Amino acid sequence: MNASEIRKKYLDFQRQKGHKEIPPAPLVLENDPTTLFTGSGMQPLLPYLLGKKHPEGIRLTDSQPCLRLQDIEDVGDPRHTTVFEMLGNWSLGDYFKKEQIENYFEFLTEVIGLDPAKIYVTCFIGSEKYGIPKDEEAAKIWQGVFKKVGIEAKIAEIGSAENGDKRGIKEGERIFFYDDHENWWSRGGGIETTPKGDPCGPDSEVFYDFGEDKQDVEKYGQSHPASDGARFMEIGNQVFMQYRRNDDGTFSELEHKNVDFGGGLERLAAASIGSFDVFKISLMRPIIEKLEALSGKDYDNNTDEMRIIADHLRGAYLLAAQGLSPSNKAQGYALRRLIRRAILKALDLGIAQDFLKETIAPIAEEYNSLPDNILTNRSGALEILEKEERAFRQTLNRGLKEMQKMVSRDADGVLTGQDIFKLQDTYGFPMEVSVEQAYHDEIPLSKNWRKEFDEALEEQRNRSKTASKGMFKGGLEDHSEMSTKYHTATHLLLAALQKHISADISQKGSNITPERMRLDFNVDHKLAPEELAKIEDQVNEWISADLPVEFAEYDKDYARDELQAHGSFWERYPDRVTVYTIGDSKSPASREVCGGPHVAHTGELGKFKIKKEESSSAGVRRIKAILEN
Q1: CA distances (Å), 173 to each of 72, 143, 178, 205, in order?
Q2: How many CB atoms lie within 10 A of CB 290?
């Protein structure tokens, strides 16, 4: 069964079980300061897992494209990718462990036909320190589902993954207990780092066994489900949110428990074809075949390069098709990094200029099923990527010339660490390329070149640390009380600008910390002192009126056309949006699409004071303001 069939079968299966299918979220979430990209299927649903009611009910399912750059250095092996598609289902206070485990086992074995004898699972071993028991409930449910297919599933208590590497698997063992580093879910990671007030709980992971012949004992130790190596691959994780961390650090059981399931489509497809290599599945194979044709080289002897190119260009296409452009900041820098790493590997394969056009075609076809409100710039994506390719190839040419000059100027004819740093910092020539090119051209490197490079890099970091201190993901530094107040005040400021300067003004950027707020907006002139005074007075008038701040979810078209809610990124919003209204619902001070957080009444804000108005860029002005007690 290929990946597209598995996706369809999964969503059909979950709908038959009473789940409502919800649309995927964009890879770049607005007003989410916690991450650069959507890295899991549950991330857009976190408010509902925290207690907010979802408009589609208490049983949900979807297929969510995800991007995680923390795995970028591992791409090149058979299973790591930065881009993946997460199949998900959720129970928001409805069913719990028994129904979830039985349903997923049914899907794996009866719907997509995996051999139950190759399925292994893990559960949480418990925490004596925090009074959280071993998850024997989940283990017994697993024993029951295996027994129904004639398999006696013995239980192993391993604890840490390192212990498993030493002891391996005993005969008949199929259910494994691990500690909180493997089988506990919270937004902070393990038990100790679970944020106060957050839901959390044990999880039960599902693994597929590709056979004992795949294990490499000398390299990885004895194989077991949580070990490295090519024998076991995780194909699903069921999180049972049954606890909340209290303010005193203890844990108490939730009255309404949730289930959060996520299973990687690529890995399920790999298990379905019996290959540990996810780059051999139907989603990846057309890209690999195109690279083989362009390079004249075969995949089996060039796996690292072809895997990196295939993975990175999938991510680059998704980001460019959502309207993102390469830059040196935040998400734009991530896009640039993906493109440039792919180009460097293409050079290693001997693929010449302008290879993107043909390589992107099968990737774009792969994502035809994604809705237009997610991929808002399909037609312009290739142009964005090709422009970056041309620019980077010019950078490489310029860097090579500069490298030759540096070597010729050096008395010993060597390339130093300071030279390599300058090539990267000034000319955009990556350190890895400099070193590789030096070896290729037989240019000697200084004895301590790496130390010299690191020292130069550290000096630059120290210089830029202060300058970068105020830049935060998603506009908010954190979700503290003051950041929440400033976020609400930003809505009032924008509304005051629209009321007193121009109704066409929209937000072009914001940056919020617990100390101040900053708003960028489109206007074609410097605001006069009397205009600034009007804006400041208006915001303070709304604050003094102690207006209520309320939110509700609506269909996007209704929010835009009927409610006349303000939004800066309509083309990127999902079909359902959250609208925050400040003031009377019939004649509000502000009505804007936003993800929060906000205060309950404007009277909580204090006195609003504009500190500075200045130019941000052509046609864009910037206001910095504070709130005083």
Answers
A1: 34, 11, 14, 15
A2: 20
Domain shared by 309 and 174, yes or no:
no
pLDDT in tens, 423-437: 877 777 778 778 877
Where residue 230 falls (left for φ over 0; alpha for ψ -120 to 50; beta otherwise) is alpha
**429 and 340 assigned to the same domain:** no
Read off the amino acid at residue 404: Q
Q: Please tell me the distance from the alpha carbon of residue 495 to that of residue 543, in angstroms, as a whole number.
A: 13
Q: 74 lies in a domain? A: no
Same domain, 264 and 297: no
Q: Identify each DSSP E strand in 145-250 by its residue range.
A: 154-159, 173-178, 184-185, 199-209, 232-245
Q: How many domains does the chain have?
A: 4
Looking at the DSSP bridge assignments, the partners of residue 580 are: 551, 592
Whether residues 128 and 211 share a domain: the answer is yes
Please, which residues have CB within 8 angstroms of residue 77's CB and are 6 or more apart in sequence? 307
Q: CA distances (Å), 513 to each of 218, 469, 482, 542, 613, in order?
A: 50, 10, 8, 22, 18
CA angle 553, 49, 57 (to 5 degrees): 50
Of 269, 285, 261, the closest CA to residue 105 belongs to: 261
Q: What is the pTM (predicted TM-score) of this model?
A: 0.69
Question: Other C-beta atoms within 10 Å of 108: how many?
Answer: 23
Cβ burial of 426 (10 Å; 0-12, 13-18, 19+) is exposed
Eight-class DSSP state of 601:
B
Q: How much is the pLDDT for 479?
A: 55
Q: Is the pLDDT of residue 472 over 50?
A: no
Spatial CA neighbour of 472 closest among 346, 329, 273: 329
Task: Give residue 363's domain range.
Answer: 284-397
CA distance 101 to 417: 55
Tokens standing for residue 368: 């035809």
Question: 433 and 356 share a domain?
Answer: no
What digits encode the pLDDT tens for the residues 110-128?
999 999 999 999 999 999 9
Q: What is the DSSP string of 78-104?
A: SS--SEEEEEEEEEESS--HHHHHHHH
- Work out the pLDDT band at 470, boundaries 50, 70, 90: very low
Whether residue 194 contacts residue 200, with contact meaning beta carbons closer than 8 Å, is answered with: yes
What is the rounded distance in angstroms from the CA atom of residue 550 to the CA atom of residue 594? 11
Strand 59-67 relative to strand 83-92, pairing = antiparallel
The confidence score (pLDDT) of residue 572 equals: 66
d(CA 401, CA 419) in angstroms, rounded, equals 13
Q: Which residue has the tokens 């019939």?
A: 586
User: For 394-405, what is each residue's pLDDT tens digit?
Assistant: 878 888 888 889
What length does the chain have?
Answer: 629
Query: Helix axis angle, 303-321 relative to 330-348, nearest 10°?
Result: 150
